[in-house]
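Build the 3D complex.
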Amino acid sequence: MSNDDFRPLDSAESDRVDRSDFEIPDEWTFDGWLEDYPESVISGPIQIPFDQANEINDSAGTSSLLQVPGENETVRERREVKGRYAFKTKTEVEILDDGYRWRKYGKKMVKNSPNPRNYYRCSVEGCPVKKRVERDKDDPSYVITTYEGIHNHQRAS
DNA sequence: CGGCTTTGACCCGCGC
DNA sequence: GCGCGGGTCAAAGCCG
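Done.
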């Protein structure tokens, strides 16, 4: 998948998106935009033209919506949160290939949600990056992925 | 054999 | 203290 597969919504499309799904949880305090972070935080399918994406920030300036072509991936929201980077993807698929190799190291049921949360660590020796993946309890057609940390290596699979 | 999942146990911080 | 919730460990099993 190339960078060109991802583009921001234009303003008309953006207006049609129901943003009520996208309330920011209290524990997700906003802490700057992604371009403040090295490219290594981002990879594969979520690599997008952030300068353009920022132009369609919501009024709070804390999220943006992206149109992603494809059967099962249509709308994403991204957020930058205190060294974490989270996005929601409308997808049937649980495992999204983001160009890195991940090793699963835990799975927990979360309170108030019927869906488990999965914990992954980057497979590269010494790389501190983790991510967790869970289905949105309010709208199971979405998968929420949260990245934490910065890869200390190039993408390599 | 090597790398990955699976899974229950363990740890730790926090509120009562 | 103690229990609960969230996060992690690690032994065992699975699979190429």
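Strands of chain A lie at 7-8, 64-67, 75-81, 84-90, 102-109, 116-122, 130-135, 142-148.
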